[in-house]
Design brief:
The complex is a heterodimer.
Chain A (H helix, E strand, L loop, with lengths): L24 H12 L4 E5 L3 H6 L11 E3 L5 H15 L5 E7 H6 L2 H9 L5 E6 L35 H6 L5 E5 L4 H12 L5 E6 L3 H5 L5 H10 L6 E4 L2 E4 L1 H6 L8 H5 L10 H27 L1
Parallel strand pairs in A: 1-2, 1-3, 3-4, 4-6, 5-6
Antiparallel strand pairs in A: 5-7, 7-8
Helix pairs in contact in A: 1-7, 3-5
Chain B lengths: L7 E4 L1 H11 L4 E3 L7 H13 L5 E3 L4 H14 L3 E5 L1 H6 L1 H9 L5 E6 L13 H5 L6 E4 L3 H18 L3 E6 L8 E4 L3 H7 L16 E2 L8 E2 L5 E2 L2 H30 L7 E4 L6 E6 L1 H15 L4 E6 L1 E3 L3 H7 L5 E6 L9 H12 L5 E6 L9 H17 L7 E2 L5
Parallel strand pairs in B: 2-3, 2-4, 4-5, 5-7, 6-7, 13-14, 13-16, 16-17, 17-18
Antiparallel strand pairs in B: 1-8, 6-15, 10-11, 12-14
The chains are: A alpha/beta, B alpha/beta.
The complex binds thiamine diphosphate, iron/sulfur cluster and magnesium ion (MG).
The site of thiamine diphosphate has 17 residues of chain A, from α2, β3 and α4.
Chain lengths: ~300, ~400
């Protein structure tokens, strides 16, 4: 049975009170990740909002070991820990590299690519809040087209984001998944699965950010759900090359009517100047990516 | 210097570095190739593949990641090794300061090479000098035996004072030149170098947040204990450097007692006892200077050499003591602090000034980008320095040896 809010284990590794903004989704992400790992993990964290969440010396808001790393160095540091644990026969511990979109797709991409190519025994988690939030919401390689950030302040970003899971998939790693804090059961189950696999595992998590996306802090989960509901974000996993839609996205695959992308974006201040032309461009991309995902799901099912 | 040649082999400096890492039983190696360091990595890869060394070899995609892997592994509980040169060392830059701030006892080799642009794969010491203030101990070697022995000492020093050590040896001049090197017995090395133990557990049973944001001022922890601020951590790092001055000497003494070879601890000297004219340098250049001292002595100049083994921590008091009788000091730098002068020269001047010594100090820049340096050129520079002082009262500008504009 799939995990849901009622049957999630009660153990907690996130202490009450942390330094993230009110309504931050990163706490929800970490909470379910660490539950699924039963705390038997070492987290490597680069400069990011997650560092802030983990606490300042000499206090901490999490009860798993956290090793801070330089911004570009997450994957390398994690593979060093993994190498050492292997040498010591302590491979029951999951080494989690958890970085933001910048630390994953931009400055961290070289180290991640190296680790993935070596199939380092590391679980790399990207929480994608779609900008450099820690330094004040600057544009990243994963910021969506049209979103205003502090470095695209009036016109909005002029490019589509990179498809990071696809980039990682090109490295032939054993497990890739997307997840959303709007569907913690799906996230939890994927982490349980990833935990049991050897090698580089990659999870890409949509992480709505009230401060940077400019929406009310109480709307975080609604925002995460809306991303999936509008198909702006698709829940799937790729296990040894086999692609599968999961959770809510799998359920949506049977439908033919969906809310438009504007339903998701119009509550976000960063898209306050969303016009029809931009909405059409974004919608076309959603349709194309959804079509590809559903087709791939069916093709893999028939194999 | 050698007591007896038990198992002397004729090997390059790079091979000597790799042999040392093997003897130190490093457990994780991560490195990225760059001339002139590459043969170290290749040798270690072979040891590990053939089972001569029981370690994990992580073939990273860059030097930044090489040091990243070392940081992860050293924190998790393994003795690690890496090496680099020039651009590779520069590419590690932010990791170097992360290592020192983490107080990780990582030992790395630096086969000294000129920094680009323009490209040069040849020797000078600008690469390690550019990383001088990162918090690492920096040791220099003058021959291949000293490379092997210094690496073994370096692990001991690093693990004792919880500071990283960069063992510097001149690219090509040592890295690619074969010399007889005695390989110590593994049992003896094991007795000299106790097994590695990480200073902070990275363990889910004892969770800690390692190196989080640390504020300027001390802060209370959950139990109400006031804990260090950033500046206190920096002070402790400096204290460790000061402590290392003794530890480096002792590591060399104990090495000598066990293996029959000593390298001088912080410095070494040649014909220094009665010298009034002292040539100072680090690495193979200082070795060359001993020949210059002989030449000068034949002409009646009472010349001697003071070779720096430790550059950071800087052996200031030891230097001042050893230079008491000197009237004139000539410092040869294989690197340059642009807009000022040779870094070692500046440090020597500051040391003598602090000790209220009126010794003349002249500086020369030598051998940048592999420019050949001969002993007679160092002797000529020394004569020039003596002549300047006899004729002129203005300070002598920094000289450039064998410059051909
Ligand atoms: C080498 C380097 N460059 C720049 C920075 C400054 N910096 C710290 S965090 C950050 C942005 C982080 O963005 P992301 O990875 O998306 O994480 P988020 O803050 O959004 O959670 C930047 C640019 C740094 N720490 N190191
Ligand atoms: S800026 Fe966004 S991601 Fe960062 S802590 Fe605040 S809400 Fe969370
Ligand atoms: Mg981000």
């Amino acid at each position: 049975m799939a995990t849901n809010a009622l049957n999630l284990p009660e153990n907690e590794y996130l202490l009450p009170g942390n330094r993230a903004c009110a309504g931050c989704s990163v706490g929800i992400v970490f909470r379910h990740l660490s539950k699924a790992l039963e705390g038997k993990a070492i987290f490597v964290v680069p400069a990011s909002c997650f560092t802030v969440l983990c606490g300042m010396y000499p206090t901490a808001s999490v009860t798993v070991p956290v090793m801070n790393s330089v911004f570009p160095g997450t994957a390398a540091c994690a593979s060093g820990i993994a190498a050492s644990l292997k040498k010591q026969g302590r491979e029951d511990i999951t080494v989690v590299a958890m970085a933001g979109d910048g630390g994953t797709a931009d400055i961290g991409i070289q180290g991640l690519s190296g680790a993935a190519e070596r199939n380092a025994n590391v679980f790399f988690v990207c929480y994608d809040n779609e900008a450099y939030m820690n330094t004040g919401t600057q544009r990243s390689g994963l910021t969506p087209l049209g979103a205003r950030t502090s470095t695209t302040p009036t016109l909005g970003k002029g490019q589509f984001p990179k498809d990071m899971p696809a980039i990682v998939e090109a490295h032939d790693v054993p497990y890739i998944a997307t997840a959303s804090p709007g569907y913690p059961g799906d996230l939890y189950d994927k982490v349980r699965k990833a935990r049991a696999i050897f090698g580089t595992r990659y999870m890409h998590i949509n992480a709505p950010c009230p401060a940077g996306w400019q929406f009310a802090p109480g709307q975080t989960v609604a925002m995460a759900k809306s991303a999936v509901e509008t198909r702006a974000f698709i829940l799937y996993e790729i296990e040894n090359g086999k692609f599968r839609l999961t959770g809510r996205s799998l359920a949506l695959a049977g439908k033919d009517k969906f809310p438009g992308i504007s339903e998701f974006l119009r509550h976000q201040g960063r898209f306050s100047k969303l016009d029809e032309a931009l909405a059409a461009q974004l919608q076309a991309r959603v349709e194309e990516r959804w079509r590809q995902a559903v087709a791939r799901h069916i093709a893999c099912e028939q194999q | 210097m050698t007591v007896e040649t038990k198992s002397a082999v004729v090997i390059t400096g790079n091979k000597a570095a790799a042999e040392a890492a093997r003897l130190a039983r490093v457990e994780v190696v991560a490195a990225y190739p760059i001339t002139p360091q590459s043969p170290v990595v290749e040798a270690l890869a072979k040891y590990i593949e053939t089972g001569d060394l029981d370690a994990e070899f992580i073939t990273v995609e860059s030097e930044h990641s090489a040091m990243g892997v070392c940081i992860g592994a050293a924190t998790a509980g393994s003795r690690v090794f890496t090496a680099s040169s020039a651009n590779g060392l520069a590419y590690m830059c932010e990791q170097l300061s992360w290592v020192a701030g983490s107080r990780l006892p990582i030992v790395m080799g630096c086969a000294n090479r000129a920094m680009s642009a323009p490209w040069s794969v040849l020797n000078d010491q600008q690469d390690s000098m550019s990383q001088r203030d990162q918090g690492w101990i920096q040791l220099f070697c003058r021959n291949n035996q000293e490379i092997l022995d210094t690496f073994l000492q370096a692990f001991r020093i690093a693990e004792q004072v919880k500071l990283p050590v960069m063992v510097c040896y001149d690219g090509y001049i040592l890295s690619h030149t074969v010399m007889p090197v005695e390989i110590p017995d593994q049992e003896e090395v094991d007795a000299y170098l106790p097994p590695y133990a990480a200073h902070t557990a990275l363990d889910p049973a004892a969770p800690r947040n390692i190196n989080p944001v640390t504020l300027a001022d001390p802060r209370l922890n959950g139990e109400g204990v006031l804990c260090h601020g950033y500046m206190e951590f920096r002070y402790l790092m400096e204290q460790a450097h000061q402590e290392a001055l003794d530890v480096i000497v002792k590591a060399d003494e104990e090495f000598g007692a066990r293996f029959g070879r000593r390298w001088g601890g912080l410095t070494w000297s040649y014909q220094l006892d009665d010298a009034d004219t002292v040539l100072i340098a680090a690495g193979s250049l200082a070795g060359e200077a001993t020949i210059s001292a002989d030449m000068l002595r034949e002409e009646g100049v009472r010349a001697g050499v003071l070779g720096l083994r430790a550059y950071r921590p800087f052996p200031a008091d030891s230097l001042a003591e050893q230079l008491k009788q000197a009237k004139r000091v000539i410092v040869f730098d294989k690197s340059l602090s642009y807009g000022y002068g040779g870094p070692i020269c500046m440090d020597v001047r500051a040391t003598l000034q602090r000790h209220k010594m009126a010794t003349d100090v002249d500086g020369y820049i030598a051998g940048l980008g592999g420019r050949d340096i001969k002993a007679r050129e160092l002797a000529a520079a020394t004569r020039e320095s003596i002549a300047w002082a006899a004729k002129r009262h203005a300070p002598k500008p920094t000289g450039w040896i064998n410059l051909q504009l």
